[in-house]
Amino acid sequence: MAISDILVFNFLSLSIASLFIDTYLSSKHFQQLGAASLFIVSLLFAFPAHAEQNKRNESTQQQNRAKLSDVQQAIATQESNIFDTNKQRSNLERQLKTDDLAIAKVAKAINDIEVKLSNTQVKIATLAREKQQLTIAKKKQERLLAQQLRAAYTTGQHDYLKLLLNQNQSDKIQRTISYYQYLNQARTKEIDKFQATITKLLQVNTEHQEQVTYLQQLKAEQLQQGTQLRTSKKQRSKTLSKLSRKLLSSQQQLNKLKAEENNLNQALHKLAAIIQAEIDLTGLSKLKRKLSWPVKGRMLHRFGSRKQGYLKWKGVLISAPISRQVQTIHNGTVLFSDWLKGYGLLTVIDHGNGYMSLYAHNQTLLKAVGDRVETGEPIALVGQSGGQDQSGLYFEIRHRGKALNPKLWCK
């Protein structure tokens, strides 16, 4: 209630009081004067007090409404910030996948080049040895031909036509003619061998030079791919740095890990549904303590240890340097070979009878879906894909979807 309203109310109250007093005086009701006066005075004090209380209540309500509006605005701002943060994280995670795949492509190219370099160097060494052997054979044949030519020159002092016309020494003539024929045949054979050696030597020289040129091209390509790999790694580092600034609470981190684990379980269930039993894949049930670890390194996280909240590790995380070969623990068929959120570049191998092995956080994958792999065969290179801050391999063994302790199988 406004102050002007209170003044008007007080004026009206005084007027009513005066009217009551005049009425009582004219009626000579003096005995009621005291009670009426008290009633009027109480009215004069009661109404202003009630108005003041209403004023305070209204002010409090206005303040509460203002606070509620501020809280609602803060909630809306926070929800908007959370939405923007989640959107940015999603974009950064997609960018991380792109970065991981770019690194994988370059790393695979470098690995292929290294294999080609090794094969080329072996071939060059083989050709060099063959070239040396041919050169030795060529020199030997040259000496033999030289001896034959000297022998022919020595015996060639007789005129061949005179020997034929001479009828007095027919036996000697026959022997000489036979000797000439023998020398000619031997010389012709050696000349043919010499020509074949020369031809082969030329071929080897040409192939050797081609392989040397190819080796130089491979080395140049390797340098180029190395530069591209460093560029891709820098881009990935920037993405990880941006992701690290989008800090998650413990509950958000737990929810994130649960979602990633659910994605993996769903993927494995789908793979299990499409597995076609192979007669020669007998599983791992009889191979406890007989298998080798897929990579050598220090154990960072063990099976069953606490991961986040109530979540536990369903495999092991092994520290290893980038680009070290990851080898399959047993023969099988590649079921999955791709990038999966939370696990990076992932390979899953079916070993038969419901047994699978899983290899995650690789730098690149060397096998495609459907490929048959043998025990100890390289299937990937160690990396840190999937958002890892250090290089290593995450490794699981599962039987019909249930995670098993790898230490019971690997020695």
Q: If you had to describe this structure to a student in words, what would you say it looks like?
A:
62% of the residues lie in helices and 15% in strands. The protein is elongated and about 165 Å long. By secondary structure, the chain is of the alpha+beta class. The chain has 3 domains: 81 residues; 143 residues, Helix Hairpins, CATH 1.10.287; 157 residues, Distorted Sandwich (Glucose Permease (Domain IIA)). The two termini are 87 Å apart. It has 5 helices and 12 strands. Strands 1, 4, 5, 6, 7, 8, 9, 10, 11 and 12 form a 10-stranded antiparallel sheet that branches. Keywords: Coiled coil, Membrane, Transmembrane, Transmembrane helix. InterPro entries: Cell_wall_metabolism_enzyme, Dup_hybrid_motif, M23ase_b-sheet_dom. This is Non-catalytic member of peptidase subfamily M23B.
Bulk shape: elongated
Structural class: alpha+beta
Helicity level: 55-70%
Radius of gyration: 49 Å
Distance between the termini: 87 Å
The major pleated sheet works out as: 10 strands, antiparallel
> Count of DSSP helices?
5
Query: What is the string of SSEs from the N terminus onward?
Result: HHHHHEEEEEEEEEEEE
CATH architecture of the largest domain: Distorted Sandwich
- Average pLDDT taken over every residue: 76
Number of strands: 12
The number of domains: 3
Task: Provide the low-confidence segments as ranges.
Answer: 6-11, 24-31
Specify the CATH class of the largest domain. Mainly Beta
CATH topology of the largest domain: Glucose Permease (Domain IIA)
What's the CATH H-level homologous superfamily of the largest domain? Glucose Permease (Domain IIA)
In percent terms, what proportion of residues is strand? 15-25%
